[in-house]
Each structure stands twice: as structure tokens, then as C-alpha cells.
């Protein structure tokens, strides 16, 4: 086994938490069950890694084997990446073709290798007709950097692909070309949608968020739920509060549904508007450039936070459509300009 491959596997194993190590190695399916049984996973991690590297050397692990282990680790830790969504379209009059995974892989790989002398491409098929693609980029003069790869998740026979954000933006057009040609599409565009949670992005673009996620149990009538009312309060006030809470609850349910929301961490709004004033001679009125403002809402779970605002009394119901349209518009980047 090559020294660079051994070092690559070593670094990948060192990243894996000990409580996940056995699970990931079994998913890798490179080392046999009998070989894994020879490893004492209770000893220090450095010793475990050395034993595993020795087993990999015995089986002569290749660079592709090491790349597959890295893909599996990334699948277990998807949230460590930020994912962008790309949408592809067919040309006018083009029909949907039958998808051939082997043909897709060969075509994708050939396009990249023809354009770049040094690039390694690895694939791993998963459930739901998805294929994970790992690309390690090099240049005409340098070998591929295995420690700064790009990951792409493509769902066959769909127009959507999910790409991990990367500082190597110069390779994005080439990657888009490879995806478009290999999947037999005509054009590709980057959507204004991004998150660390790949499953949530998938649920949004496929509009599965009312099916994929477990639904809340909403069978209990509103009157039986705790409304936090003081039993000594005037009955007229209690009635008014109940009516208002029922209204807020109804509007919130109509807007967000009864199911948990897809997980996004932020929504960003860029405003561009001309200054309007009846006063002549105003410095701002003479300004040709529009005024620009950026507003960003952040939360570990933004959509659930927005859903809770009105019931908590923090905001009036209904919320602004700019906040509630995120899943339907399939975007969390917005540009607002004068009409």
C-alpha cells in the first residue's frame, strides 16, 4: 500500500469518534468481520489506528478504497459541510431518458479527466437512488489534494444535485458541466438555498417536508390544551384570550402545517431601493445608486423558531410572507428591489 494512501486512511480514521468507528468500518466493508474481530477497540485510539492501518496494508488498500472511507465518514457527518443546491433543466422538447448509473459515472469521470490532468473521482451509491461523488482536485502541475475534496450528492432521474461549499470556486463551472452532460440535462443553475442539513434541503426541493419528517400529534382539541390562563381572571378576558389564541393557532397551522419544519440555520434578505423624497435638493434624492441593506435571521432551527413566534406572542399573526414562503419558494437568499 502506498504511503500516501496509508496516511490518508490514518487521518480519516483519526477523525472518526470511537463510538462510531466500528459502525463506519462495517459500512466501509473493506475489512472483513474476522479482521475487525482481531482489533481491540478498547485500547488507546493510536494503537487501534496502527492495527487498522496494518490490516489495510495486508489487503493492499487503494486510493479509491481510502476515498470511499472518507465518503462514508462525510455521510455520517453531513452537518459539518455547508450544502448548496443546483437545479438542472432539459432543453426544449427533450424527453426524460432512462437513467443508467454506470453510464452516468463513466461520463462524469471522463469529462473531468479530459479537462484536468490531475483529478480523482470516487462514487458511492446509497438508498433512494442517490449517488455520492467525491472529487479531489489537482492542477496541471500538482497532484489532487485528498484533504480538500468537493462532495456532490445527485439523485438519479431528478434535476437536483447538492454540492458541498468549497473555496475552489474556479472548478464549479467544470463540475456543473460534468453533472449536466452525465445526467443528460441541458442547463444548470445554482439555487438561492443553502444549509448544513442535507436531508432538510432534500425535503424542501422535493417538497417532502410534510411526509419525510414525523408529524406532531395534533389530535387533542385546542380547548383541551393548556392556554396558560389564570382561573381567577375575568371570564370575558378568558373568552377573548381563547378566541385570540385559537385564531393564532389556526393561522399558524395553515401557514406552517402540523409537521416539523425542515432545518435551516438562516435566511438572508438583500434590499435595494431608491431614496424617495418630496424635498428638492436632498443629497440622497440626487443619489443614483440605490440604498442597500442586508438583513439576516439566524437560528439553530429557523423555521421552527418562526413558527413559534405568533403562538408565543412575540409577533402578530400572520407573519410576513417573506418569512413564511421559504419552503415553498425553495430559497433562503432573497433580493428585494423596487418594482
Automatic annotation (TrEMBL):
Keyword entries, A-Z: Centromere, Chromosome, Nucleus
Listed PANTHER family: CENTROMERE PROTEIN N
Top-level taxon of origin: Eukaryota
Protein family per UniProt: Belongs to the CENP-N/CHL4 family.
Chief place of localization: nucleus
Encoding gene per record: ATMIN
Annotated compartments: Chromosome, Centromere; Nucleus
Source organism of the structure: Papio anubis
Pfam family, one: CENP-N
A cellular-component GO term for this protein: nucleoplasm
Protein name according to UniProt: ATM interactor
One of the GO biological process terms: CENP-A containing chromatin assembly
